[in-house]
């Protein structure tokens, strides 16, 4: 929660600082120098990170996946479920190509667009072959009960992150223009007011993880997604007749539930299967971007009010899915490098 909160907070801070930095550099290339500066800072920090960071907290054991190339599953049903859950990630990229292609913005031509479609299809087929290579044993032998996990846990977390982080990315993209058009503000005023949505990350996302650890992970995720749905329903009611300060309060209240929900999702991610934490986190994170593409595509066809309602509806679907989440409890088994089995408490 803390790491993710600072990351998303950084995006909001950058949105405010980069224009000022570009103006400081001045000239028609000021924006280029500003972006180049962020690259230089990131490069310097990479050396700091390499020098100081560790794979795990001191005293903890680092468990690596048994195989790389695809996520491990432990049953035949989960094998096909995994293949199904991979499709939206490629579909989101196809939607982006469609939006940039001749049928919409016409930024890229028909041949490049069709090439992207074929490339994505080929990539999905290759990924499917890797899934088969890693998991074909589940069709010929039973996985020991002690090493099993339910892929539905991953899928539900993916859907939860789809509506939390996905909606955040989408709303951050459209909120300044929404405030400008609704309340007849300048671009600077609208941008500053809308930035409050992302600035809440600094507090909200860590609290989502903290509350999840303290009061129960499934319960808190359910509460936060419910708050998210109610928040977007309220945002869907905002009109020019609202006082600006009230609209900002409603926006920041909604953003608290959105970002705390993100923290609650990642409070569960390491508890699915310890050695696969990186893979589970990566898939959940990808679904956040799938959500952003989906919601922004919807936004290109509807009014802001309907857009907020669509997110609220998606949140209700995610809320239902979360009720099928198994509360992490007891222990999970991981195999050490010497072949011994270590039981790790997850409750």
UniProtKB/TrEMBL annotation:
Domain Major facilitator superfamily (MFS) profile: 1-330
Pfam families, A to Z: MFS_1
Protein known as: MFS transporter
Transmembrane annotation, as ranges: 30-50, 79-101, 107-126, 159-179, 185-208, 220-238, 244-268, 280-300, 306-325
Membrane topology: Multi-pass membrane protein
InterPro entries: MFS, MFS_dom, MFS_trans_sf, NO3_transporter
Key words of the record: Membrane, Nitrate assimilation, Transmembrane, Transmembrane helix
Biological process according to GO: nitrate assimilation
PANTHER family per UniProt: HIGH-AFFINITY NITRATE TRANSPORTER 2.3
Entry's Gene Ontology molecular function annotations: nitrate transmembrane transporter activity
Subcellular location: Membrane
Gene Ontology cellular component annotations, sorted alphabetically: membrane
Organism: Thiolapillus brandeum
Family under the similarity heading: Belongs to the major facilitator superfamily. Nitrate/nitrite porter (TC 2.A.1.8) family.
Highest taxon of the lineage: Bacteria
